[in-house]
## 1
Amino acid sequence: MSLDLTTQQQANQETKTATHLQGWTGPALFRQSDLKGSEVDVFLPGLWGALHVVCINTFVLHTLQNKGSGRRVELRDFTRSLGSQLVVDPPVSVPVLPRLHSSYQDGPFTDATNQSFSETSCSPVVKNEKSVKNQPGVCGLDNSGNSCYLNAVFQCLCSTVPLVEYLLQPDTRKQISRCKCRVAEVFVRLLEQMWLGRAARCAPLEARSVLCSVLPQFNNHLQQDAQELLMYCINALHDDLKKVSRHQLGREQRRAGLRSDSTVVSRLFEGRLSGVTLCLHCDHQAHSAQPFTILSLPIPTDLISCSIQDCLSLFFQQSVLSGGVLCSECGLRRETAVVTYLDKPPEILILHLKRFGCKGRSQVKLKTNVEFSTETLDLSPFLSSSALSSDCSSYRLYAVVNHIGHLHMGHYTALSYNTVTQTWHCFDDSVVRPVEGVLVQSPHAYILLYSRKPFHKPQIQGL
């Protein structure tokens, strides 16, 4: 076959190249003049050039495989999904991508090992799921550059019904605007899009911009820790809403010097731990209390599988400080036992599984399958005597943040229960899929969110 192309063949080649480049929003591989046969004057060097070529070539193969099916896939979405898979599973030589649109009705694609791709990207996917469109609180979030950790956290907060109800009340919105609460204000606008908007997806660019201005450590396009962001988000919302709480105090209360730092955030997310230190020489006890919003649970090492109760038991187990603590009764440093109890369980319980840590001298990600149920979490073995009498030991799961991948690179997704549709959904950035509740548990679980009271259908004006 001759390598020389006729004029007609060149024109066809230009058309094919332009077609494959449709939807491309990243840096250009070639200038327009390159398609007309002139000398290449701009080409991305090294890794970026190779990556873009691989993306386009794989896209061509994917298009040819689906020729005649009537499906149309934008190169931009194709490249994003390809990049996600390469991060999750670098050894895959020829990636086969998952569904890029919810209109795909056939089963999930499989890779070379004949395993469902959904097992690595969003494990609890239901086959033959219906398209998710225009359902309140079910809204995908566009990835603006390594922002999957941010999107996963936003989805969990969006599914926290008591918080959403409070923030979307007309009076609350007016107070937030009047008090110039920047973080709360943009978060309210995002919630309006996700709960009251008509689109199946949106871009949280404004929320990310304001959040990064308040929290500069997230002002980059690096992959960050979702647990750390969730903690900072809760604190930032609490600090903003304290302005509203103070503004709502009456004049007489302000004159009397009364101040309230209580907000809907602290009422929902804040709990209290009580600690008891026991001198093993004289049995003297000392008590302390510590508030918390997230409990970081250790995972038993060298186990393939364990339960969430095992992690809780490990967190609350008695420990002995062999180095000794100064005993106020003995006046000497004595060996001391420390016991921790849950003294005030919060309305919303957030459990963080400590998957990232050290094994010997190496930093690793623990891939232990921590088993949990969506039905009931019993905290009674870990409550103090005063908390046991309050009948607040049972919790129900309503959201999960998953981390897929390795220590230094990976991908975050979220699962949450929607009280309007009464269905679990998986949120993989802008892609939303319904899931069966029995499939929510997976070895990728990183953050678990529980509610002490069952959520009802949100009372939101305009819903």
Note: The radius of gyration is 26 Å.
## 2
Amino acid sequence: MPHRPLRIGLTGSIGMGKSVAARMFARLGVPVFDADAEVHRLQGPGGALLGPIEARFPGTTGGAGVDRAALGGRVIGKAEELKALEAIVHPAVRASRQAFLRRHGGHAMLLFDIPLLFETGGEAEMDLVVVVSAPLFLQRRRVLRRRGMTSQRFARLRASQMPDHVKRARADVIIGTARPKWQTFAEIERLVTCLRRSLVR
């Protein structure tokens, strides 16, 4: 039995166009919970996670919040360290997600933009899982355009994430992003329209 409101989980690997897709859902009137933005808030100046992160990873925080490069250097490619960080971050983000759900409970559907949806078991709380996907060459080109990104760091990030083909296999809906944005928007619009119609039956 679907939840009310309907909970849509949106996920995808780095560089697959997830943030763009989330903004398209928002344009269509679907409230969006952005897990990445929430992590930035919790780890930003005065954020609730600065103390626990500094205690576990000394020297990775300061007046501006978490030094993401320093923290990334401590955890990327290091399974135990990454697990320790996730044990700090994931419960806090989960609590924020529940607060978002309470605030927007009157809407027909909500979108939860969560990069590690599968990795954290979050799909169990969703009614529908949407995965955004694009070919590797395009993913690589998008990611390497980011400031401070290198081929080596991209390789480490890909290795630390669930492979795209596994996410696609576990998806209820796959949205391809290797095409003009208007086509992706049209596909998302059709999906939202169909879901709204199904909810009023």
Note: Residues 36-103 form one domain.
## 3
Amino acid sequence: MPIGAQYLEVAAHLADVCRSCGRDPHDVKLIAVSKTVEAPRIQEAIDAGAHVFGENRPDQIMDRHARYPHEEWHFIGNVQSRRIKDIVPCAALIHSVYEEHHLARIERAAQEAGKVQDILIEVNVSGEESKGGAAPQEVPRLLRATEAFDHVRVRGLMTMAPQGDLDVAERCFADLRELRDRMRVEWDSPDAAFLSELSMGMSEDWERAVAQGATMVRIGRAIFSEDFA
């Protein structure tokens, strides 16, 4: 199936899942994860209506942002201190912030770029050693740390669930939503966008994430792979 048709199929299925959960499809953003995809295939997705993309390497987001500056680019990979200056000018949103010492570097890069950098705090809800992210109990400390910076804005939380068991994945998604809700009550921020986003769910488990309140799903293989079923 052509890339454009696959994108449209995923987008239509996402809308159906939202409606079945009693949610407005416009409240869930479909992020096309293009990290292993060549530029012509990205163009096919754009032609079909995709305008939000996720990249996990600095060189890739720099290249893609330069090629397609009118599209929305999210950084979803591991944040390295030395590459923050490259990521910030290109990223509408950084999904994977969890090291406190990165905040000052993001602040400086955002100030130099003349922007406020929106970020998500990555949370390792499952506790898997192989996954990055802050432990849930560390999130309040990170939120307090961001208050020192004028060019960093926390928009929400992100997690990656364990693969292979959809029920376990859904529990992780529910736990992230509950953590976000507790933090919003404790902070009582006047900013309506504060902690408004939940980035959770990928090609294998995004339906469960939507059921638990995801506002962003990160889908790559279901859009770009010919082998995904």
Note: The first strand starts at residue 29 and ends at 33.
